[in-house]
Amino acid sequence: MVDTPLYPVALMLAGKSCLVVGGGPVAARKIRSLVHCGALVTVVAPQISADIEKMEGIRIELRSYDPGEARNYRLVFAATSQRELNHLIYQDAESAGIFANTADDPQACSFMLPSVIRQDPVTVAVSTSGASPALAVWLRNILAGFVGQEHAAMAELLSQARQELHTQGRSSESVNWSELLEGDLPSLVRSGRIEDARKLVEKVSDVELAERAGVLNCSPL
Question: Can you give the pTM of this predicted structure?
Answer without folding.
Answer: 0.84
